[in-house]
From TrEMBL:
Signal peptide, first to last residue: 1-21
Chain residue ranges for the region called Disordered: 24-47
Compositional bias of kind Basic and acidic residues: 28-44
Protein known as: DUF3575 domain-containing protein
Record keywords, A-Z: Signal
Top-level division of the source organism's lineage: Bacteria
Species, as recorded: Larkinella knui
Length: 212
């Protein structure tokens, strides 16, 4: 296991440990009445303090299997702004690897480490029909490394920005923790397909599994 793989494993374990450390029992008063637990208020109807609206966790993102290969991890901090709205920020790390084929049979394996951040918002759209289905939008900025051409060893870096929209389905485990499956479409992918592929792989679709 190389240094990068060990780092990815460590980040995922830390994110999962922090997230699972938040699991608490839902308020017994509401569960006994057959009601869903409140996300921003106590069972008595008082607003929850800021600290009890925060969620800590993370997940796996930017997964592309094959050539190119990429996988990312993203620790996040989310805030329950209202009963239906969640706001959050995250830090991203993506490992990217691609094998290039040239005329004459020459090949080149390219490795890159990308890092950046994102802000996102989620809004539960139809809770009376499908609970925990959120409209999801975010802005992501990632710093990528690249070479000008195959004949140079000079490594350059640039920022790649992306606006993403889609849906997230969250399976709650407690008031402050859930398992989330997210499908987003990268609106910026075709505007910069070469560098976008360094971060997101060969498709504008982004699939994530996260825990917060």
């Amino acid at each position: 296991m190389n240094f990068i793989q060990k780092g990815l494993l460590a980040i995922m374990l830390i994110s999962s440990s922090v997230a699972f450390g938040q699991i608490t029992e839902d308020p017994e008063e509401r569960r006994g009445d057959g009601k869903d637990p409140l996300k921003t208020k106590t069972p008595e109807g008082d607003p929850l303090p800021f600290s009890q609206r925060l969620r800590f966790g993370g997940g796996i993102s930017n997964v592309s299997i094959g050539n190119p290969f990429s996988i990312g991890v993203s620790p996040v901090i989310a805030y329950q702004a209202s009963e239906r709205a969640i706001l959050g920020v995250g830090v991203n790390y993506v490992y990217y690897r691609a094998k290039y084929y040239y005329q004459g049979g020459a090949t080149e394996v390219y490795h890159a480490n990308q890092y950046g951040g994102r802000v996102f918002g989620m809004y539960e759209i139809i809770p009376n029909i499908v609970k925990n289905l959120y409209l999801h939008g975010e802005f992501e900025n990632t710093n990528v490394g690249y070479n000008v051409n195959q004949s140079t060893t000079q490594n350059l870096r640039r920022w790649v920005s992306a606006g993403l929209v889609g849906l997230t389905y969250s399976q709650p485990i407690s008031r402050r923790f859930g398992v989330n499956l997210t499908a987003l479409y990268n609106l910026s992918y075709n505007a910069d397909p070469v560098f976008s592929s360094f971060v997101y792989g060969s498709s504008p679709w982004v699939i994530r599994v996260s825990f917060f």
